[in-house]
């Protein structure tokens, strides 16, 4: 079985993204900083696959110590996952990516942060059981 995982952070009501960034981007509260640090620690040395907007938001330093692959909607998920035999693959979003790849994810690591403001991208709890409600 391929080791396919997800680490993500959500706001109090499932907020995921805003204007192409994390909704709480720039928040220097230790809880938010710790969450980002933890994401980079846990994905270090592994593979991160994600859609173009999510990859565009990844800082340059992160490309040095993990394999980051921009995935596209014309690619078959099974073919994408087969590119990395023996590697741990994190599915990094965004929404339509998780809609399609949720069924392959065996481990969800979700941090619920103390943010309750605006968002234009939302977590779909159906992903946890391999599906998608919001499409
Ligand atoms: N809070 C968190 O942990 C977290 C994590 C990740 C992202 N985000 C946020 O989410 C937002 C970005 O996500 P997004 O959904 O807007 O854009 P995205 O990351 O570009 O992901 C969506 C794109 O993925 C591509 N894709 C690749 N494989 C696909 C497939 N099999 N089926 C469908 N689409 C596929 C599609 O692009 P093409 O059709 O052009 O190929 C689609 O438009 C940002 O605000 C970001 O900060 C938050």
TrEMBL record:
Boundaries of every DHFR domain copy: 4-123
Enzyme Commission number(s) from the entry: 1.5.1.3
One Gene Ontology molecular-function label: dihydrofolate reductase activity
Pfam families named in the record: DHFR_1
Keywords (A to Z) from UniProt: Oxidoreductase
Protein's name according to its UniProt entry: Dihydrofolate reductase
Phylogenetic placement of the source organism: Bacteria, Pseudomonadati, Pseudomonadota, Alphaproteobacteria, Hyphomicrobiales
